[in-house]
Design goal:
This protein is an alpha/beta fold and 208 residues long. It is built from 7 helices and 9 strands, in the order βββαβαβαβαββααβα. The N and C termini lie far apart (47 Å). This is Molybdenum cofactor guanylyltransferase.
């Protein structure tokens, strides 16, 4: 049950998207899968917590396990797993904050300075949406968005559409350039990808 919290409307909330089916990960709950000894969602919480008023987890399974992190956990408004935008919409309905800083649960290389850069670009440009850009493509699930777009997002999902980039392009987007370190946007979709990233991390530590 999504209980309405008391929040400062002038503050930014962080949103961690952990509500997917993770079909390529044998339907494991991706945010709870360990990477280097910690659940993947731990890294997202660590990145967001220093710069937002509140961190909210969007999850549709294992709610009690996510609640153990001591944060608000909200579910989609439907039970049909309608993709990341459904989690964003549920958060918009839950919070009174003006701005949402959104990231997925499966990008353990993103640090606080990266989400700070995304947030700073939104404030500086007074943009509807700022989206991470790796020099080649936009990474649509790592973005900052105004809650005033709630009705637009509701209508988009109600029309049966789901694609993140299609909805974002309906608004004024500012790309935020991470082309100098594109690897931080690496997301983990399979257990093999997780093993490779862990091995790379351990190799990097060995060379220090």
């Amino acid at each position: 049950m999504n209980t309405k919290p008391i929040t400062n409307p002038n503050k930014t909330v962080g949103v961690i998207l952990a509500g997917g089916r993770a079909t390529r990960m044998d339907h494991q709950d991706k945010g709870l899968v360990n990477y280097n000894g910690q659940p993947l969602i731990y890294y997202a919480i660590s990145a967001l917590s220093p710069i937002v008023a509140q961190v909210i987890i969007n999850a549709n399974r294992n709610i009690e396990r996510y609640q153990h992190f001591g944060l608000s956990v909200i579910t989609d408004q439907t039970d049909s797993f309608n993709g990341p935008l459904a989690g964003v919409l549920a958060t918009m309905a839950y919070t009174d904050a003006d701005l949402l800083l959104v990231m997925p649960c499966d990008c353990p290389l993103i640090k606080t300075r990266h989400v700070q850069k995304l947030l700073a670009a939104q404030i500086e440009n007074n943009a509807d949406i700022t989206v991470a850009f790796d020099g080649v493509q936009l990474h649509g699930v790592f973005f900052a968005v105004r809650r005033t777009l709630q009705q637009s997002l509701h209508d988009y999902l109600a029309s049966g559409q789901r694609k993140v980039s299609t909805w974002q392009r309906q608004h004024r987007i500012i790309p935020v350039d991470f082309s100098n370190e594109p690897d931080i946007l690496t997301n983990i979709n399979t257990m093999n990808e997780l093993s490779i990233l862990e091995a790379q991390h351990q190799a990097a530590l060995g060379h220090k």
